[in-house]
Amino acid sequence: MTITITAFERSPDGGQGLARDTRVRWALEELGQPYKVRLVTFEGLKQPAHLALHPFCQIPTYEEGNLVLFETGAIVLHIAERHAGLLPHHANARARAIAWLFAALNTVELPIVELSNVMLLERDMPWYAERLPLVEGRVRDRLTQLSSRLGSAEWIDGPFSAGDLMMVSVLLRARSSGILDEFPNLAAYVARGEARPAYKRAFAAQLAVNAGAVPS
Ligand SMILES: N[C@@H](CCC(=O)N[C@@H](CS)C(=O)NCC(=O)O)C(=O)O
């Protein structure tokens, strides 16, 4: 069945791979699943056709036959459950990999997104200088805990899984703040994710769109 995802026609990050279609592309690439991409403008996000796919007017969405999904956690979990390779076979290990996927989104991404919002949207606010260190501190706290759990392991809990895919995707969003580099084991973990051939293919595909190589 054909898989179609949506992505920005022009991502605000200019192709750094931070838009969330990259993590879905990565999961599909890891599992060798071909997919099509429908590009959407910011205006298009609000149109009825896209709203029917995504109640919050965002990308990415995922269509496969009659199934329409939104939320990258749900999409990556669906892909990982449908095709072998991103979730361990053993039930307990599988449950833990899924827990890490949720942790990436619910526990680690939240302060990272908050920091991005402060840095991007609140720079001119009178409270910016006071608020920034507070929000940076929340990111630092989470990364301290994650760094301690990862230790010198290659991946977060056994072989590479959907949990690592999501955690690396989330941590990439913290890199521009400089905080990720304060944790050499996390920076190396992210670099290992980026070095995976499937990640490189996903990154190149989204970059081609943003470099104008893919017609919209
Ligand atoms: N929790 C959602 C977040 C989706 C999201 O924030 N998408 C961004 C692009 S990375 C978007 O569409 N932003 C446009 C907007 O919110 O107007 C997920 O993981 O899928």
Short descriptors:
binds glutathione, 216 residues, globular, Glutaredoxin, Glutathione S-transferase Yfyf (Class Pi), Chain A, domain 2, four-stranded mixed sheet, alpha+beta, 9 helices
Task: Describe this protein's structure.
The protein has 216 residues and is an alpha+beta fold. It has 2 domains: 3-85 and 198-210, Glutaredoxin (3-Layer(aba) Sandwich); 91-196, Glutathione S-transferase Yfyf (Class Pi), Chain A, domain 2 (Up-down Bundle), CATH 1.20.1050. It has helices at 21-30, 42-45, 48-51, 72-82, 91-121, 128-150, 162-172, 184-194, 197-210; strands at residues 3-8, 36-40, 61-64, 67-70. The chain has a 4-stranded mixed beta sheet with strand order 2-1-3-4. Helix 1 packs antiparallel against helix 7 (162-172). The longest helix is centred in the middle third of the chain and has 31 residues, at 91-121. It is globular. The site of glutathione has 8 residues, from loops.
